[in-house]
Amino acid sequence: MTERLTVRALPYVVYLVGAVVVLHNLWADPGGLVLRDNYPDQVQFEWFLTNGANAVAHLENPLFTAKLNAPYGVNLMANTSVLALALPLAPVTLMFGADTTFVVVDTLALAGTASAWFFVLCRLLNHRAAAAVGGAFCGFAPAMISHANGHPNIVAQFVLPFIVLVVLRLGGPGGGHARRGLVLAGLVVVQAFINEELLLFTALALGVFVSVYAASRPGEVLPRVRGALLSLATTALAAGAVLAYPLYLQFFGRGAYHGLPDDVVLYGADLASYWAFARRSLGGDLRIVNALTQNATEENSFFGFPLLLALAVVVVWLRRDAVVRALAGTGFVFAVLSLGSRPRLAGADLRVPMPWGALDGLPLFDSVVPTRLALVVTPVVGCLLAIAVVRYDRLVTEPADRAPATGARVAGLVVLALMLGPLVPTPVPAAARPPVPAFFTTGIYRDHLPRDAVVLGLPPGWGPGLRAMQWQTATGLDFRIVGGYFLAPDPRTSDRTGMFGPVYAPTLSMLLDVAERDMSIEVTTTLRAGAVADFRNLGVTTLVLPADHPMATELRRVVDGLAGPGRLVADAWIWDVR
């Protein structure tokens, strides 16, 4: 009995160990290290995790915050606030800090996604070895390792396999249509509070899969339509009731925006990336990868030519299988869509119209990052691999009275190794965490900030805004800040297009110039009056400048001229500008 349980648990243990190995650089010191390739997103998610812990501990509103982007606040439903992860893990955050929770979430996201696909594939294929291969690929494919660099909301796909399983069983024998609809509603609600983009992709992918399958097997699908529609109606009513207010807030509430910035909307996968290897794969080559992707966290379409060739053989070999045809069709559709509206081949613009160009302006679709549509291809490939293993195993072991061909099995393992070996992930790199001033970490700030403080970190700007979010996280979000890293409507556009971070007032932009361009500014009466107006309009109470900033001397001279002499408290200069 014990031996049987050990065997059954083995894939889950292997997946967990694999996730720890991939992220072992962060596990070495969660409080002292950050992701080398994507420090900003880690800071943002640690902030969201802290916000979720505060929502549990202090009964704060988890859907909107006034702590960022003062005095306007941030719509957290319109940002990736991962409440389905942050709220349950609040005890971990409160006890060990958001830096530890982040590594826990990233690890469980990788292992959990692989485990969920293994569990579902076991149910669908009744073949543990095949399910183990498929689950491993779905959880540790290059795209997943890429997003493990700061996108736990993308990596945490462990709800999606169960959504797929429930949908595929809708309208099936046994009745219980309302029960199935309620189960699906529960899964949809949980996924909506992890990542809505992946929920949309899953719905679209299932629509394509079922359509292609139904075209091949109408006699099998049509009798199930009525029951499936009853279940889906139950899902819509139940999930709609729970999500009605959060979605209203997201799309119409304070801080709602419509669409993403143009540079993000044009993020499409390079066609050549499909047969290349990602940077965090054994076969990866940075010189090639950097020419084919926008950044280290969006390598969604790197599958490598050995696997693509093998998949082509599998699809041809199993072309009579309706499931294989439906999977292949779904993968092809999403691979084409992932190229975006302006497709490229090895960096060169192909100048041909693409289907995504007709969709990217539509509601919901205007908030999709096109290259992420390739994320659908990963589980498609994982399922095809699992089916291929099942069929190959049957080929070499049937008829039942024939002994398995050892040579054939060895050959199958060799082919599998050649396909997947170059894709084996390498550890995600880490770097030293930017330090938080002792002014915050030791609690000294409580004696020098007003009760409802609004802090402007100096100099303003993207990088300093991230540092200020770290200051907040270190204090449990004990004060508000101007700026930060978030998505909010662009005040310069009439259509409320989303943008990252705030638009800084003229005086604040001037301070950024002092820091970044080594400019020398003479403080005039006009400039001083402008600063006073900017501070008042933003509700700023306190300016904070880390004493070790490389431009601290010049910044102090300018800010002293604008706001009066500052005070050095511990390792930070502060100005009270109330």
TrEMBL record:
According to UniProt, the name of this protein is Glycosyl transferase
Species of provenance: Virgisporangium aurantiacum
Q: What is the lineage of its organism?
A: Bacteria, Bacillati, Actinomycetota, Actinomycetes, Micromonosporales
Q: Which UniProt keywords apply?
A: Membrane, Transferase, Transmembrane, Transmembrane helix
Q: Per the UniProt record, which residue ranges are transmembrane? A: 12-28, 102-122, 129-148, 154-171, 178-194, 200-216, 228-248, 301-318, 323-341, 373-392, 404-424
Q: Which GO terms describe its molecular function?
A: transferase activity
Superkingdom of the source? Bacteria
